[in-house]
Amino acid sequence: MASHQRSPAIKGAKVLMVGAGGIGCELLKTLALSGFEDIHIIDMDTIEVSNLNRQFLFRQSHVGQSKAKVARDAVLRFRPHISITSYHANVKDPDFNVDFFKQFNVVLNGLDNLDARRHVNRLCLASDVPLVESGTTGFLGQVTVHVKGKTECYECQPKPTPKTYPVCTITSTPSKFVHCIVWAKDLLFAKLFGDKNQENDLNARSSNAASSSQQAEDVFERQNDEGIDEYAKRIYDHVFGYNIGVALSNEETWKNRNRPKPLYSRDVFPEEPSQQNGNMDKNCATDDPLSVSAMASLGLKNPQDIWSLLENSRIFLEALKLFFGKREKEIGNLSFDKDDQLAVEFVTAAANIRAASFGIPLHSLFEAKGIAGNIVHAVATTNAVIAGLIVIEAIKVLQRDANNYRMTYCLEHPSRKMLLMPVEPFEPNKSCYVCSETPLLLEVNTHRSKLRDFVEKIVKAKLGMNCPLIMHGPALLYEVGDDLDKDMAANYAANLEKVLSELPSPVTGGTMLTVEDLQQEFTCNINIKHREEFDEEKEPDGMLLSGWTQAPRVEKDDNKTVGNGGSSTSNASSAMPVEAEEDDDIEFVPTGKKRKVGEISKATNPNLSDVADDDVLVMLDGENLDINKKKKLQ
Amino acid sequence: MDGEELTEQETALYDRQIRVWGVDAQRRLSKAHILVSGMKGTVVEFCKNIVLAGVGSLTLVDSREVTEEALSANFLIPPDENVYSGKTLAELCCDSLKDFNPMVRVSVEKGDISSFGGDFYDRFDVVVISSCSFATKKLINEKCRKVSKRIAFYTVDCRDSCGEIYVDLQNYTYSKKKLDETDECQLQYPSFEEAVTIPWRALPKKVTKLYLAMRVIERFEEAEGRNPGEISIADLPGVLKLKKELCEAQSFNESHVPDALLERLVSDTSEFPPVCAILGGILGQEVIKAISGKGDPLKNFFFFDAIDGKGIIEDISNPNPGS
Ligand SMILES: [Zn+2]
After folding, report:
1. What is the span of the domain harbouring residue B230?
2. Closest approach of chain B CAs to the CA of A145, in angstroms?
3. CATH class for domain A177-359?
4. What interface predicted TM-score (ipTM) does this complex get?
């Protein structure tokens, strides 16, 4: 291992880094120190204040600038003679195609979302370039090696789908604070400030049969002659009072549940709320719409405090008024953004008022913001450790030291004395639809589902394709591209609106479709099976994709397990990624499933002889990970 | 929840980490004073982590001048003679670290770490030393232990692709979250001298060979009057001879200290940057735990070897203290 910096494998290597965030900054630094001389780095993001606590190549003065570019400049200051090429761009851009990937000896990921990870995985497979993948959250992290034909690809094991909640839990029977957040953010906020044409379930259960949906819609519209105070209070009384009252009338719902308490502004406010008006002038100092704040006008300072019902109610009314008073132009186009102070205040207050009504504990703005924004828990130390491990694996890949590839978990609590636990990588999953050619199976009602449903819900959402092309035998049903001629484009647009069985080349039970992404150079086949009925709650897509099973793994019959012993089944994926889409690194957290560690080849490395003797079932403890906090809400 | 609140600026900057360890821990961090000595790659990594985390102050000790070797794993100093000539390693690192977080006071203390008295150490909550001789480690550990308040003491060293962290928290109480309950836990740490003089035969079974190998190297450098890391492949016969003597004196099976490992440790003593990052990260995490009183601290050695990729904790303490 001596003198790595001078190793020709490192010096001559051309490396692609994807991501210049928390892991990326650490990784670029460690690569440069380790003697790498030709590094390319892609990141589409710009620098934000909340990055500065760990993305140490960035300073306050860099806020708003390209991460990739600033990172490059910072590293060149201490290693001026190496070559770093930065791209302020999305890795999914067509420029980064297979030919682009082919010029590299290894690709190193420091990404923050499943989509981009899958995209890079496919490009690495298509261009046959090894990939070292990584992720961190809090004190936990993981590094894995993916070499085509030798180890499993990033998608060999199914990734868990984002957490979703049944509609009625959100609209009628919340039992956790997160349900109240989802209601406040995705229903109420969207209803009041978002696109009016968007479907919204806000009144789904609360409007009784007599009132038409048209009437229910009007409730949320501000009348021409309506004062803002009057309007704000009317909304408050409608959603926290009237709607709860309507819901209570359905006795069946509350047989085994605690009955919520309708809240009306006249009961919550000890006196006329108009006399409690905030001081809007405090907001006049600035023109920046993102700094308008109801907290500021009401003199509430600490985001860690849990407000009383009265305080939440004041924030609610004040925030609503501020949106109409200061940001009226944006109304109708707003979507929730965790960096929008007023939006966070409104959602926190609305969620808390609803929580109070349902007897759910209230939360601080800080906590509510974390839940609503899927904010990633991130610290510098874990990123530094993970970056070090990535470089160690990258060097092994460059030296073609395949017997010593490891995936490594960084743990919060030691397991078998280890804080850093290396595990031998798995072989490719023979039924992986990405790296093997195994077809998938899609159950769908071919008389009811449109091609558009198939494209959106399956090809894009499930298969992660960017520029899909769909074929039925020789017939082209759909394709995406800038260079389509008019007739073709019109043809495809028409196809999108047709149900599968009525396409020019009808898709029915027994059909095999070929779906291809030209950019990812990735093709897979899907066998279609017709099915009449789908369970609305469990199968909301009205389709079921399967055939993507985990390869059976030999399990040793012993009890050497650590952690939550209850779950000993081997079907679900191990090392499940927890997905959180934010501005930063997150991802896989080892959860409580077994992975078998294979035979570590002792012959090749005498130093391993003492440690490889216990062929272990490793189980990583997911108990303390607080995963719930990081789940995607919807 | 006593003490003043975090400022708005702190809340914004530390948002993501407060979500990991809480406001209370962040407040404690901002009041902690850290001393480090030996500004090589591993310590530099540690300093970066702890400055980003937002400690109260960081004091650097290292009066050496810049050499090519000192720069090899150091990202704080540009390799430009115009910048570094005439300045000590500590001064140069200080200039860069200040930039990382304007809310942390970073300063330099001139002089020799082993000449400072007890009242000097009294100013610190955490002391981290690196690139020190065996004697210096013992000496400073003892000085820290004599100060009336508890100082968390650490040593950290990286040789080639291997690394070691030693931790002394003396009598340490911390809270441990178990599901919904919080338990008070207590740990008793041995001093550095107590730990390293435990007879090898009394060590935990299957103790990592790295622990033993590091002790052999440490003794060798001490006996030969070398500076730490001042060793080469030419010394291998001497090192192997010492290993044999140490094992024989303790009736310890020599095969537990593989010659190949010792050979690796003497043939390249320069720090391997990825290992610096890993050790600096683990050490940063440990110091944050010790300051905040949250989470299981490491007791009392940590080892990493890039060859097998394992990061192992070893408890090297006398099972019956006081007997
Ligand atoms: Zn695969």
Report:
1. 194-267
2. 14
3. mainly alpha
4. 0.95
